[in-house]
Amino acid sequence: MKKILKDKRVIVVVLVIILVFLLINFNQRMVLLSRLRKQEKQLEQEYSQLEATRTALKAALTFAESNQAVEEWAREEGSMVQEGDIPIVLLSPSDLVVTESARQEVIIDEVSNWEVWQELFFGD
């Protein structure tokens, strides 16, 4: 009887040890799963940002290859004109000619200090 009881205790202890190891392993796997889910969300965000950038670059490339972009560059940066256009050339500020305006004569009336005080106190 004692032998059977000892065998049962040994079996229970071994089962408990195995169960503890299984629980530790399960906990580690849950932590790993949580970390991988966070990483998945982060990668999904990066992917959506890259897709948005890709879409914007495709649109810019399509515009750059269009006739409108070529004409815009030719007119703005290439200084080119079409037939019938009247070109306007702006002069830089260093090429400006300064004309002198007629100077007005300033008449200064000299007033003595006592006249200023008299006007201040007695005024008209």
Compact summary:
This protein has 124 residues and is an all-alpha fold.
Share of β-strand residues = under 5%
- Following the backbone from N to C, one meets helices and strands in this order, namely HHH
Structural class: mainly alpha
Radius of gyration: 46 Å
Total of helices = 3
- Percent of residues in helices comes to 55-70%
Q: How many structural domains? A: 1
Largest sheet: none
Mean pLDDT over the full residue set: 85
Termini separation? 136 Å
Shape: elongated
Please tally the β strands and state the result.
0
Would you kindly provide a written description of the structure presented here, covering whatever features stand out?
- With 124 residues, the protein is mostly helical.
- The chain has one domain.
- It has three helices and no strands.
- The longest helix has 63 residues, at 2-64.
- The protein starts with a helix and ends with a helix.
- The mean pLDDT is 85.
